[in-house]
Amino acid sequence: MSFYTSLNGMKNAQTSLGVISHNIANSETYGFKRSRTEFSEIVAGSALTNPRMIQGIGASVESITQNFALGPVEQTGSALDLAITGDGFFTTRSATDGSTLYTRAGSFTLNGNGNIVSNSGNRLQLFPVDANGQVTGNTLADANLPPQNAAGSEFVGVTIDDVGVVSASYADGSVEPVGAVALATFIAPTGLKKVGDANWEGTGLSGQAAYGSPGTGAYGSLLSGALERSNVDIAEELVGLITAQRNFQANAKAIDTATQISQTVINLRT
Questions:
Q1: Cα–chain-centroid distance for residue 137?
Q2: Distance CA 205, CA 243 (A)
Q3: What is the DSSP string of 177-237?
Q4: Cα–Cα distances in Å, from 264 out to 24, 56, 256, 257?
Q5: For a disulfide at 153, which of 14, 132, 172, 193, Cβ 3.0-4.6 Å?
């Protein structure tokens, strides 16, 4: 029994090592959120078992939990680099299948069609606004900057203010609001599903997305010209790496000891 208990412990330590290694590998990934491995005890017993005789038979991986604490904010000076100071997520539309994705990585650029897109090519979603930049509805649409205004002047630049209003500037000096950045929050963000490239999608565990504008509620304000870095603490991860490694080695030693004891018993019987 001790052999299988320790073997299970080695598998758990390997899982923990994998999670920590993934955190360290993404320590420089913008918008990345670190994870931790949580374990639960396994015992052998039933309703009729004497409580004083219940034996533990190891542990299992209960969950790999994401930590959505805010990461350090880095100033970049680029108008399309955005950081959120609260719990909100940028809402994007997948470039591959059109699904709705959520991210904290605010490194956006303009593509050839005038869309504001993430590094993955996903299109940023905006609320509609009037000529004064006031939100007029909750229907989301792709962030698209017209190459010319109604007067025929060429597009020259874009700005995004702290409440998320995206404005296009034109050669004649005019500035026209085109939409407001839509942020999303979740009642249980740890239930979001990772899909890669610092993107998540909603699940039944996370609950439905609640959409709102920057600067309201728990969504947080928007910082233009800044990016949120990974919330991975390298020193903490290295300590965890050493602990997981020692855990693995200790379980390996326990297996070796159990094997020696079993062999001794077999030799005595023969």
A1: 28
A2: 30
A3: EEEEEPEEE-S-GGGPEEEETTEEE--TTT---EEE-TTSTTS--EEETEEEPP---HHHH
A4: 43, 24, 12, 11
A5: 172
Angstrom distance (rounded) from CA 70 to CA 118: 20
| Contact (CB, 8 A) for 58 and 42 | yes
**Which residues, including other chains, have CB under 8 Å from residue 100's CB and lie 6 or more apart?**
91, 92, 93, 94, 125, 201, 202, 209
Closest CA to 91 of 74, 137, 99, 66: 99
Per-residue pLDDT tens over the stretch 74-102? 999 999 999 999 999 999 999 899 999 99
Cα gap 145→126, rounded to integer Å:
12
Output the six-digit token pair for 154. 């060429």
**pLDDT tens readout for residues 180-194:** 999 999 999 999 999
Longest dimension (CA), the chain: 99
DSSP 259: H
Query: pTM score, two decimals?
Result: 0.87
| Structure token pair of residue 269 | 């019987």
Q: Return the closest-CA partner of residue 102 out of 83, 80, 124.
A: 124
Structure tokens at 252: 């390996």
